[in-house]
DNA sequence: TTGTACGCGTTATCAT
DNA sequence: ATGATAACGCGTACAA
């Protein structure tokens, strides 16, 4: 079975030394091998169907060619779009992507990082958002510090709370701009489907939105803020919970699009017309939105670029303090929040 | 920088031999190491923050712990859902998933397989559909034969045209059942957005649908079959093309949901009411459908299970002829194809 | 320019 | 039960 042809076989077949065969085949920096020998080696490799062993190369060279990507759920469009960006950038850098998924269990992140460290991944991109949970963050910090001491690079997508390079999405500015835009359109009784209470991205969006609306003179009533999971089901449940209180509300902001879609489903089910009875807005501008009726107002985050940027950042040589790459967001007003003025 | 602690360091620190340290740490089959020594070793490892090198282990053991997944575009919900299934199954088997994407260029598949072979991946799951393109298929067959001779296992999701284990989705039965169901609901003037002409999955669905409708007495008019890309944009373009001919049509079947969503977008844009002016159906039942209005009729394919099944199949010991695992599909009638009788 | 020989970190074989 | 030591497949000083 596992009868792999090795470089020694090729060398023997070509009648040269192992070293020459190695040089001829990887053709690295010092391309110092006579043309005819090179030909012989290549021919022998072809004939024997030689396939280099990346693991052995990694050992000998002291570095691998793989990059780790940590997500919560690859089926979630948010993560899969980021993954597409990571994949493209990794490809450009001739790196393999190792996909590590927590399967919705954030506490697994630490062990995934350890796994990627065992694999000696050159870099790790962590796409899952942080929580306001110091013990967990401390564990991650420790794991990442270990990893970085061993020579690995890390980029986080989210909040800069882990002492590593971070791609920071400007959630606060986006949410505030959205709030102002909605206020300008005449909305005065906002509600928020706020996601997990301790999820930092959710919190940033939630609080910035609330602050901006308050500043505009129409504070969100405490009863009109409901927390829940950062998922479709979570959004649906949150919307039902909100509606059950018979709230005096004219616009609902879900802190991400997936939740907004869940909320929309709830509205359909509850007989609440969007936007006639209620306006609705989300955040992220995932691709899926283009297939939804009514078109959903949201704040665009260039997810694929975020993934690519995070990857490039991780791959750049760099020492010193953790860097921050800021990504701007953009309010996209659509039919789900018509002008009421 | 890259100053990794090795097992030798641990052994020295614990005052035992390399061999003992190895046995103590991996605790493999022959767990023959005295308790106190084991403790010392573990303590030393902990103290030194030792992390095993998976590459070195792979070399020594002769097998890696990674599994390759080949897709066209991880951002496509079809692939990302399959990927979720693969990820879960791989996790259960303690394998890492290496994500290899063709970035929409099917001809890159061969080189991705070679890449995964270099990496000595234990198994490869290929999720992209096949084309009726013998030269390309021959190249893939050769690459996969090489890979399998070197000890790797392969499972294909799609058509059994590559001499490897294949998870076969029963496209024909599903499409035929859909056609009959539509006919039963009173539809008599069908059209087909048929995807790429030589894409086997597209073709199977297209032809089975057409055959079944013909058998029911209402053949699809040749002018009402339009080909195009297997994407959202492809579906949109195909719908526009179809509509431009002013066709006498009462139901449109798009050979996958992503295309159907594109078609739906075109309809919105063209002012064609679905389902009032035209009924619409797709295939796959991707998650996204639950957010679309009207709810789209489709044929369900259990994508996540398909991914998991493909992975399990690849991991089972097996010799002899390529196996076939058949996956049933199920017609799901929704509001986009109301009863016209 | 080519070849020899050592090292990469681990497992496994074989004595002890 | 434990310890030397030889693989594993390759890259690369160093020597020739």
Contiguous runs where pLDDT drops below 50 for at least 5 residues of chain A: none
The percentage helix of chain A is 40-55%
Pair of chains with the largest interface and how many residues each contributes? A-B, 58 and 58 residues
Q: Shape of chain A, please? A: elongated
Mean pLDDT of chain A: 96
CATH topology of the largest domain in chain A: Rossmann fold
Q: Which CATH C-level class of the largest domain in chain A is it?
A: Alpha Beta
Structural class estimated from helices and strands of chain A: alpha/beta
Please give the order of strands in the largest beta sheet of chain A.
Answer: 2-1-3-4-5-11
The number of distinct structural domains of chain A comes to 3
CATH superfamily of the largest domain in chain A: Response regulator
Q: Figure out the total of helices of chain A.
A: 12
C-alpha end-to-end distance of chain A: 74 Å
What would CATH call the architecture of the largest domain in chain A?
3-Layer(aba) Sandwich
Give the strand content of chain A: 5-15%
Main sheet properties of chain A:
6 strands, parallel
| Whole-angstrom Rg of chain A | 26 Å
**Strand/helix succession of chain A:** HHHHEHEHEHEEHEHEHEHEEHEE
Q: In terms of quaternary structure, what is this?
A: homodimer
Q: Give me the count of strands of chain A.
A: 12
